[in-house]
Design brief:
single chain; Alpha-Beta Plaits; 7-stranded mixed β-sheet; alpha+beta
C-alpha cells in the first residue's frame, strides 16, 4: 500500500503482533516517508487502499526517536466472554461463548495475583528480541457488561508474552468454573510451568484496545 503511494518499498513497524483471529481497536504503527503533501492527504490515500476490515483512524508526524513498539509505556487488552446458556450469533466473531455460569468474585480474586512484576512463563513464551519472560501488569479485572450476558476481562501491562492473555483467560475460566481456586492460580503463576496452566482461550474474544505513550507537554 505505502509502496504504491510513496513509490518505494516502505517498512511499517507495529507496536506489537497479534495472533490470527485477534482484533485491535488501537493498534499503532510508524514508518519513514518522504512526503511533500499534507498528512491528511496521505491518510486518505492509505485509507483508499486498505481492505474493508482495516481503517486508518489517524495519522500524524512523529519525532525521529519515536518507535511504535519500543516507545510504548503500556498496552491494554480486553477479552470478552458471552456467559449464558444460549450463544450470541451477532457476537460470535468477537466473544467466546462459555455456557457454564462463572464465579466472577473468584475470577477477580485470582486476577489480583497478576498485578505487579512476575515471571509469566506459565502463561506464554518470549516475544522476538525479548528473551525474558518477566513482565509487569498494572491492572487486571473482570466486569459484567450491561447487556447480552457478556463479561469482560481488562488487562494493562508494560508488555506481554506470546499467547499470555489468552492463556491467562483460559486459566481464569477454570477458576470461574471452580475447577481450581485463586490460591492454586497463584501457584500456577509462581511455578513458571506452562503445562500447569489451563487451555488457551480462543483468539476471537481478544482485542488490543490501546497502546499508551509518554508525550511531551
Amino acid at each position: 500500500m505505502l509502496a504504491r503511494i510513496l513509490g518505494i518499498p516502505t517498512r511499517v513497524y507495529g507496536a506489537g503482533r497479534t495472533d490470527a483471529g485477534v482484533h485491535a481497536l488501537g493498534q499503532v504503527a510508524h514508518f519513514l516517508a518522504d512526503w511533500s503533501h499534507s498528512v491528511e492527504e496521505l491518510r486518505k490515500g492509505c485509507s483508499a487502499l486498505l481492505p474493508a476490515d482495516i481503517v486508518l483512524r489517524s495519522l500524524e508526524s512523529a519525532s525521529h526517536d519515536f518507535h511504535a513498539r519500543h516507545s510504548a509505556r503500556s498496552k491494554t487488552y480486553t477479552y470478552q466472554i458471552i456467559n449464558q446458556p444460549i450463544r450470541s450469533p451477532l457476537k460470535r466473531l468477537y466473544a467466546w461463548h462459555v455456557p457454564h455460569q462463572l464465579d466472577m468474585e473468584l475470577m477477580n480474586k485470582a486476577a489480583s495475583h497478576l498485578i505487579g512484576s512476575h515471571d509469566f512463563a506459565a502463561f506464554g513464551s518470549p516475544t522476538e528480541g525479548t528473551p525474558s519472560t518477566i513482565r509487569e501488569i498494572l491492572e487486571a479485572r473482570w466486569e459484567i457488561m450491561k447487556s447480552g450476558g457478556a463479561i469482560r476481562f481488562s488487562i494493562r501491562g508494560t508488555g506481554f508474552l506470546r499467547y499470555m492473555v489468552r492463556s491467562v483467560v483460559g486459566t481464569l475460566v477454570m477458576v470461574g468454573k471452580r475447577k481450581i481456586m485463586p490460591e492454586e492460580f497463584n501457584e500456577i503463576l509462581k511455578s513458571c510451568d506452562r503445562s500447569l496452566s489451563g487451555s488457551t482461550a480462543p483468539p476471537h474474544g481478544l482485542c488490543l484496545v490501546s497502546v499508551d505513550y509518554d508525550y511531551p507537554d
